[in-house]
From TrEMBL:
Entry GO MF terms: nickel cation binding; unfolded protein binding
Domain UreE urease accessory N-terminal: 8-73
Family indicated by similarity: Belongs to the UreE family.
Main location: cytoplasm
Signal peptide stretch: none
Any Gene Ontology biological process: protein folding
Matching HAMAP family: UreE (MF_00822)
Protein name: Urease accessory protein UreE
InterPro entries the UniProt entry points to: UreE (IPR012406), UreE_C_dom (IPR007864), UreE_N (IPR004029), UreE_N_sf (IPR036118)
Protein origin, superkingdom: Bacteria
Subcellular location: Cytoplasm
Length: 154
């Protein structure tokens, strides 16, 4: 890929805080590619650009990358192979499962009574042993920010 050095994204604006009418395209990124500072990328239309931020930022679904020409690229969270974990029974059972995942420092996304995390057969076996129901899904992965990976934008 040849990156056009004049086509650069230099600022991030949080979802809902950038002008949608200035969107010039989108860029779909997996979780691991949504925490960067400087990297050659290709938008969904096939055009190369340079992500050139002052510091690394965790990008979320719907954020806007401000381009030097005044346009914006919308960030889309790519669908990834994940596990969905459900726990029936008392809240203590859910807390126990969440504790075991947190103790292993695994990135997780909590939506209501469902925990999503990356597929891992060893972790799936552990969760099943704790009484959880585990099923494979393909979905966007937007884990909790945590103490060290907050989702703040400059």
């Amino acid at each position: 890929m040849t990156t056009d050095p004049t086509r650069r994204a230099t600022r991030v604006h949080a979802r809902g805080h950038w002008p949608l009418d200035r969107a010039v395209g989108a860029v779909t990124l997996a979780f691991d590619d949504r925490h960067r500072r400087r990297m050659a990328m290709t938008d969904d239309g096939g055009a190369a650009f340079l992500l050139d931020l002052p510091r690394a930022v965790a990008l979320d679904e719907g954020d806007g990358l401000e381009m030097t020409d005044g346009g914006f690229l919308r960030v889309i969270a790519a669908a990834e192979e994940l596990m969905e974990v459900r726990v029936s029974g008392p809240v203590e059972s859910f807390a126990r499962v969440a504790w075991h995942l947190g103790n292993r420092h695994l990135p997780v996304q909590i939506t209501g009574d469902v925990i999503r995390l990356r597929r891992d057969h060893v972790i799936a076996d552990m969760l099943t042993g704790l009484g959880a129901e585990v099923r494979d899904v393909v979905a966007a992965f937007m884990p909790e920010g945590g103490a060290y990976g907050g989702h703040s934008h400059g």
